[in-house]
Amino acid sequence: MKVLVTGAAGFIGFHTCLSLLERGDDVVGFDSVDAYYDPHLKEARLGVLASKAAEKQVSKFTFVRANLADKAVVDKTFAEHRFDRVINLAAQAGVRYSLENPHAYIESNIIGFTNILEACRHNSVAHLTYASTSSVYGANTSMPFSEHKGVDHPLQYYAATKRANELMAHAYSHLFSLPTTGLRFFTVYGPWGRPDMALFLFTKKILAGDPIQVFNHGNHTRDFTYVTDIVEGVVRASDAVATPNADWDSDNPDPATSNAPYRIYNIGNNNPVKLSAYVEAVEKALGKKAAIELLPLQPGDVPSTYADSSELEAAVGFKPATSVEDGVAQFVSWYRSYYKV
Length: 341
Fold this sequence. Notes:
The protein is an alpha/beta fold.
């Protein structure tokens, strides 16, 4: 197949492109390679993708360096390629940054996503799969989090824009019969990860002998999900084209399905881990103890996340299962190799 992956130079987008190339798909990557974090890391990911495509020979990687908010470039890209699938992983990420620069989230997560929806509509794309986030659960405390419960109380602007994506996708599924599947990712980590995320920061500071900041006094619990598990779910969900739910009841509407071709799935490890235990896994992998600075809960953070992944498993036959100990060890191995420490 020919697949468009937006956010191809990003953490999850990079791994998704690798997986698609590995199985022989032609991939068009789309990314602005902005400076939200180190562009050199993004360029290195793109280099790996180009090498992988050359190695596979049966597959091809084409890269478009542009901003999704640029409608003309998005339209031109769709016109030049007849995409069998579109996987939208481009987004302005980060909970804390949304408190400082909300307009960046409008450009990427709202305008950019609108351009993708319009291009999919006018080019008869068979299936749009897009990234949402566990952050949409916001003030919900009934766990494990289920797609069948309402998510109307986001605690940060980032989560609000990703929830908006889910609603926008439903409108296009209803109005234009565009099959869409939204995937709520739960705390993704692993090799080639983002430098602003906890695992990256912990590893860098522990190796340097600097204290690490552990918020909520280490009492957070997170459903840490290894990146290749996330990607397996993304690719399988993309292959499983969304269909209407014949049993959908408008008197008792299910938020995860519709009488339109629309689906929402959690992708999480279904095994929440305390932040303090996560730090211990990093210490073990590094063979070095951390100096820890315990701090209160940050604005916009939620104390716990926990995914019910049963709907994903039933739909595509896959459930994430990589343990935190194994996943952290693989990240540390990559980090030491990449940064030569």
